Amino acid sequence: MEIIRHELQRPSVFIDEAKLSIDYVPPNLPHREEHLRKLTQLFRGVIETPGQVSQKVIIIGNTGSGKTSVTKLFGKLLCEVAKSHGFNLVYVHVNARRERTEYMILNKILSAFQTGIPLRGLSTQELLSIILEYIESNNLYLLVTLDELGVFLKRRGEEILYLLSRTVDDQLNAQQRISLIGISRDPLFGFILDPSTWSTLQKNVLYFNRYDSCQLRDILEFRVKAAVLDGAVPTSTIDLITDIAAASGDARYALELLYNAGKVADEKGVLRILPEYVRSAKAFITPEIRREVLVDLSLHRLFLLLAVCRLLKSSEDAYITTGDLEARYELICEEYARSPRAHTQVWTYIQDLVGLGVLTSKISGAGQRGKTTLVSLPDIPAAVLECELELLLEKRRVGAKGGRRN
Ligand SMILES: Nc1ncnc2c1ncn2[C@@H]1O[C@H](COP(=O)(O)OP(=O)(O)O)[C@@H](O)[C@H]1O
Ligand SMILES: [Mg+2]
Description:
Blueprint: H1 2-9, H2 33-42, H3 44-48, E1 56-61, H4 67-84, E2 88-95, H5 102-113, H6 124-137, E3 140-147, H7 149-156, H8 159-170, E4 178-184, H9 189-192, H10 195-201, E5 205-208, H11 213-227, H12 235-246, H13 251-268, H14 275-282, H15 291-296, H16 299-313, E6 320-321, H17 322-335, H18 343-355, E7 360-363, E8 373-376, H19 382-398
Parallel strand pairs: 1-4, 1-5, 2-3, 3-4
Antiparallel strand pairs: 6-8, 7-8
Helix pairs in contact: 2-4, 5-6, 11-12, 11-13, 12-13, 13-14, 16-17, 16-18, 16-19
The site of adenosine-5'-diphosphate (ADP) has 19 residues, from helix 4, helix 11 and helix 13.
């Protein structure tokens, strides 16, 4: 008790660190006003003539360019506007990397209504029918954002888009109740889709450019005000973070640097976030592999990734074979007292990790017997990632025993 009390009483540079968390959506998003305006224009019909039209919009942009925050804020505001126009709009933001199947996505949508309907053993079609009936009988309108849609479509194809839109198109004179926003990081998103699907969506694409260093500075200063003690962040620190993050134009990376540097300051008991703390923080942040992606990975995918790290760490080669990977994976399963998945399943997991950009792969060239797939990590030190994975696995071990991930 003493220890906890003492720790809680220690001064901190943060006044509200939740305001720097991944899920927090600030009420203002500097330098994204134009995108909010554009979205509003695209959804004008949905608000002014509800039921007559629905809308589908695609957002494309790099990591940390504000796609998720802008749509979440837009969804929230649009619901308020709908209310003032006398109808009920429900906004559901689905992370389609986390909700890996059509069923999981629909389930997520339905859970937003809090119907209390027991869902065990339903088929995807039945789930969809329940959603449609529910919104029809309660006279609701729905705006669904499918975030990380590119990743999902590559794995599952376009069925989810048909499920959520064709149902409406099929019924003559039916009220148009479901609108969609799809978000992707993939600049070639159009190529993932069937050309005919793309041609209908193409006119409603919004591109989010990377933030430049001036914009990143504004964003940082704005977020510093909300989260950190007044005067605790010298300009030199903001400069350094801006310089580091400007290369990728990634606001999340900038905020993560700030947050972690603040943690270093707290550890040292210093009430200022000095540039040196940013440098220390940088060594432990890997912008190429997002922490939020790792957190969502299932246990065996984490095992595989850990196996890659350990192999690469001690290897002279830049790539490893999937055969070596599988052998090492089995050792790790043993270490964590889990039975390894079958070969074909492991193969799907590897493909998955490649799809998420967490692993890179290539086919072996000349000189090697037969053709085999080789895998590696994007440009990050295996040892840093290994550390992070071990921590994450430890947390899982301590935390939820069981749960839906396996
Ligand atoms: N214009 C902005 N103003 C303030 N914070 C921002 C802005 N754009 C992004 N952020 C912050 O940066 C982080 C990444 O933004 P996010 O919307 O998740 O990006 P994306 O979805 O494009 O990867 C979030 O913490 C978000 O709050
Ligand atoms: Mg996002």
